[in-house]
Amino acid sequence: MQADLLKSIREEYDHNVAQQIFISPTAWAMVKQSKEETIKIINIAGNQMTATSMGMDLSAKIFELVAEIGQLPTEITVEHLKKELQELF
After folding, report:
1. In angstroms, how far is CA 47 from the centroid of its own chain?
2. How many distinct structural domains can be found in the chain?
3. SS (H, E, C) 11-41
4. Residue 66: is its pLDDT beyond 90?
5. Cα separation values, 36 from 10, 12, 51, 86, Å
6. Nearest Cα to 84, choosing from 29, 37, 39, 38?
7. Domain range for residue 63?
């Protein structure tokens, strides 16, 4: 499950890489950082799994880590992107 999550994140990022022409360099840097932080969270959770852990165990650990963080990097990035777009329109 960890590998599938990481693959999906990377594929989505690669799919949207062309979108960087529509936003500021700062916003794109935030998108990249959000991707990396999300991958880090998944890997931290994955590293805490045992050989017998199931996908539900990984999911629970990810939710636990997210709860400790508070505001996710993706949430911060989305807020910044919304502000940036509101300034344009």
Report:
1. 17
2. 1
3. HHHHHCHHHHHHCCHHHHHHHHHHHHHHHHH
4. yes
5. 10, 13, 25, 26
6. 29
7. 2-88
